[in-house]
Amino acid sequence: MDLNKLLNRRELCIGDKPSACIAGCPLHMDVKAFIEEIQKGDFKKAYKIMSKKVPFARIIGSICDEPCKGVCPRNKLGGGINIHELERTAIELGFSSPKKSIPIPKNEKNVAVIGAGISGIVATFDLDKKGYQVTVYEKSDKIGGRLWSFQGEQLSKQTIEEELEIMNKDDITIKFNEFVDEEKLENILNTYDAVYIGTGTWEKDLKVNPQTFQVEDSSLFAGGRVVNKNDSVILSISSGRRAATSIDRYLQKTSLTAARENEGSYDTPLKLQLDDIETVEPIKRTSSVYNEKEAIEEAQRCLKCECSQCAKNCPHLRKYNTEPRKYIRQINHNENIVLGDHYANEMINSCTLCGLCGEVCPSNLDMKDIIQETRESMVEREKMPVSAHDFGLRDMEFSNSKHFSMVKNQPGYEKVKYMFYPGCQLPASSPEYIPEIYKYLMDNIKDGVGIMLGCCGAPADWAGRQDLVKKNMEDMKDKWEKAGKPTFILACSSCYRNFKKYIPDIKLISLWEVMDKYGIRKNNKTEKKKVLAVQDACSTRHNKEIHESIRSIADKLGYEIKELKFSKEKTKCCGYGGLVYFANREQSREFAKDRIGESNLDYLVYCAMCKDLFIDEGKKTFHILDLIYSNNLEEAGLRKVPSLSKRHENRALVKKKLLKEIWNEEMNDFKKDYGFKLNIPDNVQNQMEERLILLEDIEKAVDNAQKNKERFFNPENSHYLCRLRIGSVTYWVEYEKNENQIFVKDVYSHRMEVVEE
To answer: According to the UniProt record, what class of enzyme is this (predicted)?
Structure first.
């Protein structure tokens, strides 16, 4: 896979982008961390966070004009957080005298700062910390400029003097009552390595023609007071800080502009979903400054802005405590460095590839496509664990074998215009409905309807096995062309997605659209107006026709539909997609539990696996076909989920029944008679489901043991232990024999191959 392209896509993730308050603050104070400490009642830590970014913190924190509040998303939900008031409280309750720092050795560069106003003293402060000898020229007899205009209720004279005391040090020279005109500026430029003009409207104050001196050209830098309608203090500070950075870069002979796009205030790309957030009014202070309780309550209003829509709504990302940016980094590490480690493999194979993350992401970053490409790359590099998808691929192989696969035209038609393709999971789960559906289609469509049984190849696609996908699709296309290129009528959403992806030439229509168009029998029409919540199959995410037809059918049958929060294009996966059901059963269950936990209503589905997985977790769930054909809805909504072995048997029985009822043809039973009868208790059957062991696997293992005497005998309990490797899996069976009865005691499987010498 293209790793450079992968890493570039990582930049679409805005999960690590700053909140609006941090981006809106010209100094980029970590407002979120500051507020979090106040929420905990730790005002000392809050003050330390503020003073780390804000120079002369007690002064600036008391008079800041808080542009951060103006961009706070809370403005739409009660009012922005009173950050400035919280700063004042942090100063009141959290200030402690700073520890003396070790002075940085000075370099040989000398910088002049003209004007000891707000931007001038900030530039001086920063340049001094960077190791430069700084000389300040101030036309008055004190530093601070308009800071002194705040003296009074907001600031005491003592606080201003104490904060500015840091400027009175040997490394900083301040020349008071020094007015700089054009002539003196020429001398200063010739004396110092760099000069910053930090006065207000500098061309007026210095009587300097701006055309004579180019700003930020050569060694001259100009900034100073930001003149706007708010006369912003914090922007003046930012101006001085940016000037200090420019001077440092100029003297270090590095780029003045590189990586400075987000200096000062800027609009963050971080987007928030505010739909579910309650409006909360600001806390009013009872005195000149918030007390501790008031400050904590106001801080609690903070939304803690972050983009977490994907992780918030995806059980997979939550389980692995990750987000797209981190996930992509792990994939890159797995591809480029480790080349397939256990943790990364498990994580990559635990995604259902449903695409919800891309739908809720403000940047439309879809991990589905990335993980699909990763799986294909792992297969190509032979780093994909065979065990992850072995069962799903064997299940697909069975569905495309003679036991289930077939293509037949409607009796009396040499050529048909339509071909019913039910997929492999619906016949496995609800085999009784397939003949009913086919008869319905033949009765309602006059141009002839054939039927094709098989698997569309979705398991191979999910497993990253493009070799198997290609083979399957070539076979499918060949059958379609030989049948006269009929329109496919599809009952399976995954089939719809797969055909559209790999054989776009085939014209597709869903069974539900056909039923909605031609009408359905009203035998099961309910009179109670039962309310159901619709679970849309994730593979129909952008198929409006299917969404609408399902709801229309339910309505015609007398049901009221209640939409789930996540439905249609934002629907969630049941946990089967991506073969997660086989690769990581625990993760699959978490998907199912997450989905059924959204509503107490009974669910209506049109995907066979959605029904089976939800019922398996105790949720009453109806397939749309239950509403149409079932004679006992209550039983259908909680019917026992067919075992993995039963699913194979059901597919074969569907083919057998169709051949008998429609074409009056007989089909040989696919079950082989091994000459013994298996007796398997419930607890062992449960183990078989958990360990993905089929009845036929046990039969083959026992048959091999009986015929070839490849078994161990335990004289203490008279049990036999045998093994047989089928494909990449070795199956072990512990059993007791009594004539032609085999009593199975235990079963397990593994991917390790036992080699005999």
So the answer is: oxidoreductase
